[in-house]
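Allow me, if you will, to draw on your knowledge of protein folds for a short while. I have a record of one protein: its chain in single-letter code and its fold written as discrete structure tokens. Could you please explain, in whatever detail you think fit, how the structure tokens follow from the sequence? The record follows directly beneath this note:
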Amino acid sequence: MDIRQSIIILSILMLFWGLISAATAGAKVLDDFVLVDVTDEALESGFTVKSSTKQLWIPIFPKQYSEKVKIIISDESAAPFALPANTQPVTGFFKFSVRRDKGTKITITDQPVLLSFAINSRSGFQKKVYFYDEDNKQWVPVDSKITDTKKNIIQATVKRGSGHVVVLETLPKEWTSASAVVIDRKSGKTVYEKDSQKVRSIASLTKLMTALVFLEHNPGWDKIVTIKSSDFVGGSYLPVNSGDKVTVRDLFYAMLIGSKNNAGKALVRSTGLTDAQFVKAMNDKAAKLKLKNTKFVEPTGLDAGNVSTAAEIAQIAEKAFAELNIANATAQKYYQVKTVNNGKRYWVKSTSKTMLDRDLKVVGTKTGVIDSSGYNLVTEAKSDTRELIALVLGADEKMNYEEVYYLLKKYL
């Protein structure tokens, strides 16, 4: 039975039979292992055995076994054997066995076993179930498939009735980002850094400083701004027309969520300051924060002359995400803009949706990319015990999400 056939069968079972509790099969559950003495009723109807952590499931199909079996799943506190290079576990480590029970004689079954795992990582790195080959003393990848993206379930069929298993994700051999930093929000200490003092173009991370300066000159959230042709400066834009009227609130959210450049230009104009005056205020604020390597030449991030370092962007992000209006905006996946003059509606999708869809408690996040900068991303996230700001500059396409996610998961 290959994995696709197993998955189809499992889906049918779940639909028509449901998952019968292992308790009906006679289960003993302790802190670190589950032992199931399968009853005749369970063999007839099918059931699912779950590890004590509920992270590994072994479904048994109706009449899959002709004789009684014992099933044991042990949770191992640490990796029992060295892992392959450039991998990390995204589940716990388990040892399982399915044994024939013929009274006084107990042997390991030779039938394939379908395993289902709940993964604790939503990164884009490749994930596979690994089975430890006792003969060759190495972890071996098993043909695996993500069967439920919402619940983050991966399945694989192993050919043996017992062994050590885990799900591993493969990490890139080298990080693609030119520089990176992780800052502990509460202590201010640097947790991790890679060329964090290197000056680079920051692209739309610029908009965090634009938002901070705007809040100091906010003319009122309900003020109506008329869009001008001069607002269309290139890059990502809100698909409104010249002459359309939009509230300051909608411009603010469109700029931060979707990184819309025309929204940013109109927002700057709403303050009553000229572009030159606004940019001067941005540089003055950078100087006040003692950011010696940060310079702005315009407010959207389209110009490569907007530069900073990973370390100094982290300081800007710390100030920005401390502002509730900025944090609330950047933590939204979607936002709807409505023009005042004709009532047209436009959905704005977050450029950081990849991060917001993952298993992180995101406080605030912002992307930035132009040809000369590479892919940039800064994200603040928290756990029950820690709050971190992580960012990368100059990563490869899509790798900005993966590398920031990895750093946050590792150090949170």
